[in-house]
Amino acid sequence: MRVPGAGRTAEAVRAVGGWLGGLWSRLRRAMRTRRGQRRAVQTLMLGCVLALLPSTWMYAVAAGQVGDVARAPRTPVAVVFGAGLWKGEPSPYLAHRLDAAAELYRSGRIEVVLVTGDNSRVEYDEPDAMRRYLTERGVPDRRIVSDYAGFDTWDSCVRAKQIFGVDRAVLISQGFHIRRAVALCERAGISSYGVGVAEPHDATWYWGGIRELLASGKGARDAVLAPDPQFLGDREDGVRRALATQR
Fold first, then answer.
1. pLDDT score for 3
2. Cβ pair 12, 6 in contact under 8 A
3. Residue-averaged pLDDT of the chain
4. Which of 117, 104, 53, 36 is nearest to 76 (CA)?
5. SS3 of 247, please?
């Protein structure tokens, strides 16, 4: 499974792995003495605390703003984050996100779906695959807006606000990712409610949780520094026009 920003996160994981390797080497040398052992334990505890701070912040920001489809408030726009393609079609995790969006549309809780994902290569087009999937499940094409430069969660949130003019949104992702999405979209200026799509707790789920712990560091950095997206571009009125159309 691929989730938003997988390439950037892989680089971050490699960097963290190198840092941890160096830290372990220093700790091993220090632990040859009793004083070194005490310092090693203190350093390890401090490292654990620092590693968990970004995730703790995201949980705090998203508190009370995450639930399931049944509890999602009526909101004009839903944002679905890309999660990879298999042979040109949405991966199972992405399909489940889109199923949730289609259910919200059919129940009248949302009016427009903004699909945001990676289209950095000609042969890889998440937004169009997401659009096809939704139309096959009854969401009118005129009610779907595509963001082709949602390369990671931060980029998707900033572009939803600055390019597409989204002020309020229901965000749809898996449970291990949704709190980061809510926290970052709130930081970008979007009043957000997160729908955490339920999944079996299999190997893919646990890997997603581990990856999310690492990605939370980048998320916290993005929230603090508020960098420009990889691609910003001109403002688009696709969401406004879609909301103006009749069901």
1. 42
2. no
3. 85
4. 104
5. coil
Mean pLDDT over 151-169 rounds to: 97
Cβ neighbors of 5 (< 8 A, separation 6 or more) are: 151, 152, 153, 154, 155, 215, 218
End-to-end CA distance of the chain: 33
81-92 in b/e form (b: 16+ CB < 10 A) is: bbbbbeeeebbe
The β-bridge partners of 171 are: 79, 194
17: buried, middle or exposed (CB in 10 Å: 19+, 13-18, 0-12)? exposed
Give per-residue pLDDT as tens, 49-103: 445 566 777 878 788 899 999 999 999 999 999 999 999 999 999 999 999 999 9
Strand, coil or helix: what is 212? helix
**CA–CA separation, 100 and 102 (whole Å):** 5
Q: How far apart, in whole angstroms, are the C-alpha atoms of residue 100 and residue 78?
A: 10
Q: Which residues pair with 81 in a beta bridge?
A: 116
Amino acid identity, position 11: E
Query: Residue 147 forms beta bridges with which residues?
Result: 116
What DSSP state is assigned to residue 153?
A: H
| Relative orientation angle of helices 175-188 and 153-162, to the nearest 10 degrees | 40
- DSSP for residue 69: G
Q: Going by C-beta distance under 8 Å and a sequence separation of 6 or more, which residues neighbour residue 55? A: 212, 213, 216
Non-local (6+) Cβ contacts of 100 within 8 A are 69, 172, 195, 197
* Distance in angstroms (rounded) separating the CA atoms of residues 82 and 94: 6
Alpha helices (H) in the chain, listed in sequence order: 6-30, 34-62, 92-106, 126-136, 153-162, 175-188, 203-225, 238-244
